Each structure stands twice: as C-alpha cells, then as structure tokens.
Amino acid sequence: xxxxxxxxxxxxxxxxxxxxxxxxxxxxxxxxxxxxxxxxxxxxxxxxxxxxxxxxxxxxxxxxxxxxxxxxxxxxxxxxxxxxxxxxxxxxxxxxxxxxxxxxxxxxxxxxxxxxxxxxxxxxxxxxxxxxxxxxxxxxxxxxxxxxxxxxxxxxxxxxxxxxxxxxxxxxxxxxxxxxxxxxxxxxxxxxxxxxxxxxxxxxxxxxxxxxxxxxxxxxxxxxxxxxxxxxxxxxxxxxxxxxxxxxxxxxxxxxxxxxxxxxxxxxxxxxxxxxxxxxxxxxxxxxxxxxxxxxxxxxxxxxxxxxxxxxxxxxxxxxxxxxxxxxxxxxxxxxxxxxxxxxxxxxxxxxxxxxxxxxxxxxxxxxxxxxxxxxxxxxxxxxxxxxxxxxxxxxxxxxxxxxxxxxxxxxxxxxxxxxxxxxxxxxxxxxxxxxxxxxxxxxxx
Length: 446
Ligand SMILES: [Zn+2]
Ligand SMILES: [Zn+2]
Fold this sequence. Notes:
- The chain is α/β, with parallel strands linked by helices.
- The chain is built from 13 helices and 21 strands.
- It has helices at residues 2-17, 38-49, 104-109, 122-125, 128-135, 143-152, 213-216, 221-230, 259-262, 266-271, 294-303, 328-335, 413-416, and strands spanning 65-70, 76-80, 83-87, 114-116, 138-141, 161-163, 171-177, 180-187, 238-245, 248-253, 278-282, 307-311, 345-346, 358-362, 369-376, 379-385, 391-398, 401-404, 409-411, 421-428, 433-439.
- The strands form four sheets. Strands 6-5-4-3-2-1-14 form a seven-stranded mixed sheet. It has a seven-stranded mixed sheet with strand order 7-8-9-10-11-12-13. The chain has a four-stranded antiparallel sheet with strand order 18-17-20-21, with no helix packed on it.
- The protein is elongated.
- The termini are far apart.
- The structure holds zinc ion (ZN) (2 copies).
C-alpha cells in the first residue's frame, strides 16, 4: 500500500511538471455529484456549521457568526453572515482515501452560494466545477481561473463565474455577498526561491513528518484517477480575499509567496487590508524547504491579525506531506521572531482531528433601529438606521393600520396628529423577523 501511495505521488508530480496539459472536461465518477434536496442541505449544514447555528426548518445559518469548517489543505466550508460559501474546493484524496471525512457530493449538499478559489492548482480547485454544477453555486476567482473552469464544464449551461480581477489588476473591492464587504488582492504562489535575505542559519527548512496515512486510509483506484487527472491543472495566478461585516474581518489566502525575493511591492498592499481580526493562511508550500516559515510570518506581520489560523499543513499528499502537527513548533519558533505585542493568537488545526469541525467567530452586527425626526410642523420622517443590509421587507403600523410598507417615509399631519405608537415588522433575508417600536411624536401639534 505504501508503494501504491508513492506511485500516486510520483504520477502526480510527473503530471504536474508535464508541459502538455491533458484535455479538460472529463470528470471521474468519484467527482460526479448529483442535484441537492433541501432536507439533505439542512443535515449537511448542521454537520459543518454546528446544529446550534443552523435553522432546522430552513437551513439558514446564523448571520451574526463567521464559521469555518476545514476539509483539508486550505479548503474551508464557510458561513459568513449566513452566506454559505466554499473557500477552495478539493477534498484531499488520491494518495489516500477517506482521510478527510467528506466528499464533493456532501459539499454540494451545503448549497453554497459561491465557490471561491484562491488559485487553481488541483489541491485547491479540482472539485470546484462539479460542485458548482451540482449545487448551482457561482464560481469566483481570477479571470484566468474562470477561463479554466469554462473549459472543464460538463453541464449544458456552464456555471457562472465571477472574475474578481482581470489580468494586470492588483486589487479591488467587489460586490459578491450582500451585507459583506469583500476586497481582493493579487499576490504570489509559494515558490522554492533561494532567500535573498539569507543570513547564516536564519532560515530553518521544515521537512514533512513521516506519514502512515496511506496505510491507514488506502487510496481507491477512483480517487487515484480523479486526482492524477487534475494534477496538471495550472495555478492561473493567486488571489487573497478579505471579508468584513459588523465589527469583524477575515482574510483568507491559500498560498504564501516569497514576496521579499520576488515582489516586495505587495507588502504595502497587504498592510492596506488592516484591520484584520482573523487571518487564515497557508503555511505549507514549496518555500518550506528554502526559507521555512519566513513567508507565512511576513504575511502575518503585514496583515497583523489578532488571530492566525494556519492551513495547508495537513497530510494531503503523503510522500511530500506528513501530519500537520509537525508544523506547530516551527511556526511557533518563527512567530517568536515578531515583537510580542504584534504576535497573533494562533488557532492550530490538526489533521484529521479538526476536519469538518466548526470554528466559530461571533460578530457584533449593529442592530436595526427605527428612527424618526420631525421635518416640519406635524410632519414626521421615519427611517431605518443601523446595519440594515439583511432587511428584505418592512411594514410600519399604528395599531392595526398599516402606515408604510417601505422606509424612509414621511407621515402627514393627519397621521401624526393622533400620536400613539409606531410598530415596525422587519423580515430579513434569512427569514428571521424583528419587531421595533417607537412613540410617535406630535411634531409641534397638540
Ligand atoms: Zn498551489
Ligand atoms: Zn496548494
């Protein structure tokens, strides 16, 4: 079995370095996912995001949370203000099977709105198109990724793909998720560069730990075929994402490049993404052999998150990877080079223990408020204030009488004269309801 695993790795590496790309579009049986039924969606969301955070009737996920559920490498199922999205889309398999306890079919059952891709190597995007086709999710990536995905389409109508940056563009704010500010920044893939800032003994290469995973979780021929078929998938550039709403911001990057050696001009753009509450960033890559944890540390220094969640360090390709626990000490040693007051707290995920377990961040969203202001004798302006991005509809009543079914509204003297109490009923995007009440001032009438 160990030999079979090494053969897989050899085939993957050979395919990945081959110049000729194999024809795209052939999707193996293991990648084929079927359309989704609503009850299955609720179950899948409860499993990934925690039953307490998912409405059992509708599957809506709490909007005052960011929830991350890891499924290997830098792949996360995420709920951001109730929006379910995938951050990368590949269930690690091929050199092993069943190590990551989910499947492309289950990810499709989450009914994600978006499949967001940081770059298009197989360990980040091999399952993106089948999941999008089965779930109706939109694909999101660089223009180059969208072009690749269009070539892989098997459906009569290819999944829509949002290109967040065109070739040559460095950064942008994009409108992807209602009520969530999204910013994107082009950066660099990891690379085995000789560090230009080398001083004797400073850079400490990190070697993978030995792995028993292929013995404990032997690969199936289908998984081998699926993954070998995607091994030549090109990077297509690398992009990071910053999601923010309420009092919270999250940056996710699925690779960390040698910026110091190749493009130090990216550092100021990283600093522009501050403030960052949580950075989810790749710590494993080709550069682990040349500069160890330098590049991940420099991303942390530039983004200055309060909390860092390392990723990509798990045993996704035994032969070149091992258990992620081997990265804990090297990462800690590298972060110790930072001034203590700038060092983030670390949430260290371990494979396979932390696969498909919700990591929950609570977010304070400014509550919706009913505000009113006299704008003339006997004339009252009524409006909504606070964070109203989730409000789908509003009805304002006095007693049983409907005064307005949209806001802002001006109430006429004939209405204001009677005083009383305004009651507003808000229905939000996720079906939740809020009731607000204020007294109705007379605005100078008596
Ligand atoms: Zn890559
Ligand atoms: Zn990768």
